Amino acid sequence: MKKMALFAVCSSLLVGVNTSAFAVDFPHLTTTGYGEVIAKPDMATFSVSVVESTMTAEQAKSKVDEVVERFISSLAQAGVTEDSISSSNLYLTPQYHYPKDEKPELVGYRASRNVNVTVNDLSKLNQYLEVALVDGINQVDNIELKVSNESEYQEQARQAAIKDAKQKAESLVKGFDKELGDIWQIRYNNSNTQPVLMKTMQMDSARMEKSSYQDSAITIRDRVDVLYKLDD
To answer: Global pTM?
Structure first.
């Protein structure tokens, strides 16, 4: 079982303040509950690029296509399924030199293609990056660490937020010698998961990031606002 830390975050409380789109004309209390789950990533997606500049468009296209095809073939041999790999179309642009007070001179062509890979086993991420390096990929555009069962963690965070809102309401009414009535309104504000993103890097730099993959953590948050009636 994956380790995770579950906790509620302290939040500001509003007593008797209108938080809905309409006026609330009875005594009430509003609390905001927050919940977080810290999850260890077990999968990843990464995007790499191959870029070539040559004198002719045909040469540039040929070199880029050759590298991409070799990389995709190597991934397949390493056990990556076809539906975990996607590649972009070729992007080809002319390159010009701009002499002062003269017409631009065509000096060659720049071709590039991207390949996106889903890694279902995080322990193999470094292996696939090494494959990319060997096959001639020259840039990692991004690496995003994820959890495969994110919905389960999100539910854990949601339940923590609900518990947090309840505890705050009960504490407040006790402190003010009031009675907590029925729930009048619940407003759900789902907080997005914060994935672990690695910056754009050259392939040699990507190899230096190895130790950080397994030590990373993903924060999954949730939030709920609850408006209670206050009994006399």
So the answer is: 0.72
